[in-house]
């Protein structure tokens, strides 16, 4: 495994995550131009573009968004990797810079879900496929029920994690869910049941939005950092893996991946970065449902197996705690428009490492980790470090 | 659409045997790796570990409940239906995700469950049928004690 030499995040931008947004092109333009302004670059300085959009639409490819940003002849590649679509676009941008093919690479993710629901309420005209018989919400429900059985996790712990993410999102201007009051665990528990034991307020928020990250080599990044009086934010690890066969593997509808996949992908990322879990200042994970925060705390090596519950109860994953999770609200609070999600994580990590996160700031943040699963079958882990 | 379904048809071919069509069933159709002896569901084109040859195999018709949940589905009447889903470990080590019959109160991790054919329902709770009026079914499980 080779080190990532001299690859940096130099600009981040977002279009707010909302119930119903403007066109894909418009949201992509807003996020893209915000990231360019943040970096102090113009689109003519971008050497390649990776555009992530889901659901796939033959007429809304990266080229359609690039038409809004400028016609420069830049190579554009469409990227899709389920929930990890944005993470995959970011990784391609990182690798393009690391390989020397690009001085500046732009990763853009756009999502447009049109008010999709986790559970259908209308009559369907045709039956689902065999694969579609079990809804994604059910996989996470079964994961949570098994966790309750194995580790004694309570629904109150799930509710506390969700409430924390709602409350982080209150202070994120781009978040999908912005409560007008401090959300309590009791309120989360009292919301509508989706798939036992998960309620609607414990579930990832769908929505429309966009996020963009600019990645650059050392020469460009050092110039921009000096111009703007900012610290360098280095990408020290980029790992992407798909599932391997193991005990309890499910082929049909593997929306929730084996926890082992996160453990091995994170281990590879730690080795690449020359860092360990003890070095992390903040963490983003695929927390579509709160059981995932508990599982990933353990599989990312932040605590032992079965220990996450007591740490969460003591506030370890809140801002001000030992290892804050989802400092922008995560998939539950900030939202999960899919295409932008992995890039929204990088947006937050970058702002945290720069010290620009305002009331959500993690004091002295030096290292951030971003993790996403895609269809339970791929895992992306990135580590960013403030130099 | 006839009011009385004359028979049952599979949601998709190649997953489960149906008595009316196959003369016996329900039985899940899987694959066994010649190299490792491990079985997989649904059928694989090759062994996922060795990439070697697999043979068709019929899997056990019962197993142990590994986990369960239910989807809270609002019906047009306003009633909330609890749509059960289970993960079942077969004795040969294969895990299956499928609809789970019964009520949440009776589901216990580790309990014995058996394979059944379950109707495929739309969000209103109405069973899907094909053009001939046959009920569309797929594989599911039910608690053994409740059979």
Structural write-up:
The complex is a heterodimer of chains A (387) and B (147). Chain A is built from 12 helices and 11 strands. With 387 residues, chain A is an alpha/beta fold. In chain A, the strands form 3 sheets. A 5-stranded mixed beta sheet of chain A has the order 1-7-4-2-3, with helices on both faces. In chain A, strands 8-11-10-9 form a 4-stranded mixed beta sheet, with helices on both faces. A two-stranded antiparallel ribbon of chain A has the order 5-6. In chain A, strand 5 and strand 6 form a beta hairpin. The longest helix of chain A has 16 residues. The model of chain A has no long low-confidence stretch (mean pLDDT 93). Chain B has 147 residues and is mainly beta. Chain B is 3% helix and 44% strand. Chain B has a 6-stranded mixed beta sheet with strand order 1-10-9-6-7-8, with no helix packed on it. In chain B, strands 2, 3, 4 and 5 form a 4-stranded antiparallel beta sheet that branches. In chain B, a hairpin with a 5-residue loop joins strand 6 and strand 7. Chain B is globular. The interface between A and B is large, with 38 and 39 residues.
Overview in brief:
The complex is a heterodimer of chains A (387) and B (147). Chain A has 387 residues and is an alpha/beta fold.
Comma- or semicolon-separated keywords:
heterodimer; A: 387 residues; 5-stranded mixed beta sheet; 4-stranded mixed beta sheet; B: mainly beta; 4-stranded antiparallel beta sheet; 1 helix
Poorly predicted runs of 5 or more residues of chain B: none
**Order of strands, widest sheet of chain B:** 1-10-9-6-7-8
Oligomer: heterodimer
SSE pattern of chain A, N- to C-terminal: EHEHEHEHHHEEEHEHEHHHHEE
- Strand fraction of chain B: 35-45%
Quick one: how many beta strands of chain B?
10
Strands across the major sheet of chain A, in which order?
1-7-4-2-3
């Amino acid at each position: 495994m080779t080190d990532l030499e001299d690859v940096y995040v130099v600009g981040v931008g977002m279009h707010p995550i909302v119930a119903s947004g403007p066109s894909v092109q418009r949201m992509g333009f807003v996020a893209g131009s915000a990231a360019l302004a943040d970096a102090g670059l113009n689109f003519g300085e971008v050497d390649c573009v990776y555009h992530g959009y889901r659901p796939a639409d033959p007429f809304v490819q990266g080229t359609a968004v690039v038409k809004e940003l400028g016609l420069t002849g830049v190579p554009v590649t469409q990227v899709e990797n389920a929930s990890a679509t944005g993470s995959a676009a970011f990784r391609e941008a990182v690798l393009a810079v690391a390989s020397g093919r690009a001085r500046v690479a732009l990763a853009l993710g756009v999502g447009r879900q049109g008010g999709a629901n986790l559970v259908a309420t209308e009559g369907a005209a045709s039956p689902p496929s065999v694969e579609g018989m079990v809804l994604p919400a059910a996989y996470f429900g079964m994961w949570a029920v098994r966790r309750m059985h194995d580790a004694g996790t309570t629904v109150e712990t799930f509710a506390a994690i969700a409430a924390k993410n709602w409350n982080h999102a209150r202070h994120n201007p781009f978040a999908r869910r912005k409560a007008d009051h401090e959300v309590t665990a009791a309120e989360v528990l009292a919301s509508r049941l989706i798939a036992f034991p998960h309620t609607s307020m414990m579930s990832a928020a769908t929505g429309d939005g966009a996020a963009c990250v600019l990645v650059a080599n050392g020469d460009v990044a050092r110039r921009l950092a000096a111009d703007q009086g900012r610290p360098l934010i280095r990408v020290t690890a980029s790992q992407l893996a798909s599932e391997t066969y193991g005990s309890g593997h499910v082929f049909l509808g593997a929306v929730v991946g084996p926890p082992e996949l996160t453990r091995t992908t994170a281990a590879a990322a730690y080795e690449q970065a020359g860092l360990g879990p003890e070095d992390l200042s903040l963490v983003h994970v695929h927390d579509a449902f709160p059981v995932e925060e508990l599982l990933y705390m353990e599989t990312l090596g932040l605590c032992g197996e079965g220990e996450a519950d007591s740490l969460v109860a003591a506030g370890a994953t809140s801002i001000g705690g030992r290892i804050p999770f989802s400092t922008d609200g995560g998939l539950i609070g900030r939202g999960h428009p899919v295409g932008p999600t992995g890039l929204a994580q990088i947006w937050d990590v970058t702002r945290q490492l720069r010290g620009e996160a305002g009331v959500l700031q993690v004091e002295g943040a030096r290292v951030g980790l971003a993790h996403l699963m895609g269809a339970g079958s791929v895992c992306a882990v990135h580590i960013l470090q403030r130099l | 659409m006839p009011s009385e379904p004359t028979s049952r048809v599979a949601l998709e071919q190649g997953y489960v045997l149906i008595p009316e069509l196959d003369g016996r069933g329900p039985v899940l159709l899987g694959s066994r790796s010649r190299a490792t002896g491990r079985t997989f569901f649904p059928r694989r084109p090759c062994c996922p570990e060795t990439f070697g040859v697999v043979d068709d195999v019929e899997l056990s018709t019962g197993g142990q409940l590994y986990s369960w949940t239910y989807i809270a589905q609002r019906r047009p009447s306003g009633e909330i239906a609890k749509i059960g889903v289970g993960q079942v470990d077969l004795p040969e080590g294969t895990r299956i995700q499928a609809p789970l019959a019964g009520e949440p109160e009776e589901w216990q991790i580790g309990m014995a469950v058996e394979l059944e054919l379950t109707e495929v329902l739309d969000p209103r709770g109405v069973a899907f049928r094909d053009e001939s009026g046959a009920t569309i079914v797929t594989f599911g499980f039910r608690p053994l004690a409740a059979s």
